Amino acid sequence: MRQTLTIARLTILEASRRKLLLALGVLTIVVVVLTSWGFSRLPTMKDVTPAEVRLAASQLTILMAFMFSGVLALGSTLVAAPSIASDIESGIALAILPRPIRRGQLLMGKWLGLALLVALYAAGSGLLELLGIWLGTNYLPPNPIASLAFVAAEGIVLMTLALLLSTRLSPMTGGVIALVLFFVAWIGGIALAIGITFDNDTIKNIGIGSRLLIPTDGLWHGAIFYLEPSEILAAARVAGRARAGNPFFADAPLPGIYLAWVVAWLVAVIGLANWSFARRDL
User: Fold this and answer.
1) Which residue among 23, 25, 131, 257 is least enclosed by CB atoms within 10 Å?
2) Number of Cβ within a 10 Å radius of residue 225
3) Within a 10 A sphere around the Cβ of 86, how many other Cβ atoms?
4) What tens digit of pLDDT does each residue of 51-63 get?
């Protein structure tokens, strides 16, 4: 366990020295400042009521969460895709592994370090953005902590997939594949929304299958639910199926069985990554 934690600490230190994280942090602060200013303009619009400001702020908050989830997906992929592959190509893995460190400890240490980075970015950027929204409009979503947890889980899922690909593929190839699968899952979520709208079982099954294979879109919809105000949920239930077809809307929390599936998916992919790395020629 000590070796795993040491690798995790070194992974965080190595990632913190990359210009990618610095650039991401600076851009995040710029975006938070600009969007906070934009939110502060909502109450100043002509003939707008407090209820309308709250409605606009709630829906724009979901769009901002979607943007940050995309940034988190991209960032987690870019830091995870070269994690193992670069060590193999540079010979670092060959120098480390003859020491009393097993391959599984190396991989799990990197996973722990990267997962912590993903969680810290999700929490930090999300809380800053929510603070700016609150200062500008006096609005906060019903359960921001739960929504941030789901966004972080989405990034960890994609990071885990990229880490698996890193055990066999070059950094660029693995990163591109992980990002393509992320967008495929998002398109699958839109297909599910269309299937619900038109009550088409075939399209719904395609969407459900994509959420099971790559659970990023399902976790995103879990985050949406905790960002929706109660009055929006009540109006959506009155609107019925048409509102349910909105890909930026969720009228119910994720079922417990799906959350169990996500946990099992993570365990399976981490296990597959360990198996793949153990059989990789260095």
Assistant:
1) 257
2) 19
3) 14
4) 888 888 988 999 9
